[in-house]
Design brief:
Shape: rod-shaped
Structural class: mainly alpha
Number of helices: 12
Distance between the termini: 87 Å
Oligomer: single chain
Largest sheet: 3 strands, antiparallel
Helix content: 55-70%
Number of strands: 5
Order of helices and strands: HHEEEHHEEHHHHHHHH
Keywords: Coiled coil
Strand content: 5-15%
């Protein structure tokens, strides 16, 4: 029967619309307003029952014929639960700590850690359609992971967590300082390797200069090599307390150690 099929389709349209709007409505007036604004469905109360008028019908459809979830008693209880959830959410939002000023505060509800019992109570207490619309499963999964982590690591108080945080922060500072010191040492070793190579490559020329009869002329003819040799010797001796020259083998071993 085409007329019967059309009627059933319209009833399902009303069911879907009512289910969606009632999941967040906090009162009958709010429900009535949203239902008409979004779906052009009128809803009225008569003798303790709700009835709905599809935008393409002239006769109301009773909530009872749609199912128990579409009549007055069920919906009023749902509106009350939605209103309570909305009120609690607003209170939590107003008392939310400043995570930018204190990042550790994100692990806390009020003054206590988010322990497993808090998570379980939260989920059980908020099992309403309104809450399901507002909270994604991923958020609960992340909360559970946080709870598991803090319990596995013994973070049972804020002070305990703060102490661990301070300790890790200090260790990170020390590690950064050690890395910086190591980088400075490697730079010094690389510099010595460079100038030792420069010293050795110009050593024979410099020895000839020392033996030359006419040193002025020899220096003039080999000025670049002699200057490089003298500069390398000066830098290498300055970096060794006893003024001696390092050995290339020792420098390479030191670099590998670092």
């Amino acid at each position: 029967n085409p007329m019967e099929t059309t009627f059933q389709t319209r009833k399902q349209f009303v069911r879907n619309a009512v289910s969606e709007i009632s999941s967040s409505a906090i009162s009958f007036e709010d429900f009535q307003s949203q239902l008409f604004e979004k779906y052009k469905i009128h809803v009225k109360e008569n003798r303790g029952r709700y009835s709905y008028l599809h935008p393409e019908r002239e006769k109301y459809i009773s909530g009872r014929s749609l199912g128990t979830n579409f009549d007055k008693d069920y919906l009023l209880n749902l509106f009350e639960a939605n209103a309570l959830a909305a009120e609690q959410e607003e209170k939590q939002r107003q008392t939310m700590p400043d995570y930018h000023a204190d990042p550790i505060a994100i692990l806390f509800i009020r003054s206590d850690l988010r322990l497993v019992v808090d998570l379980q109570n939260c989920i059980k207490a908020q099992q309403s359609r309104a809450y399901a619309q507002k909270v994604k499963i991923s958020n609960l999964q992340q909360m559970a992971k946080t709870v598991a982590y803090i319990q596995e690591n013994g973070f049972d108080t804020r002070e305990n967590l703060q102490t661990t945080y301070d300790s890790i922060t200090l260790q990170m500072h020390d590690a950064r300082q050690k890395t910086k010191d190591t980088e400075t040492q490697i730079k010094s070793v690389n510099e010595q390797i460079h100038y030792l190579g420069q010293y050795l490559s110009t050593k024979s020329t410099y020895n000839e200069f020392l033996k030359a009869r006419f040193k002025g002329k020899f220096r003039k003819d080999h000025a670049d090599e002699i200057e490089k040799h003298e500069k390398a010797a000066q830098i290498l001796k300055a970096q060794n307390p006893d003024g001696s020259l390092p050995k290339m083998k020792d420098l390479k071993l030191e670099k590998e150690r670092l």
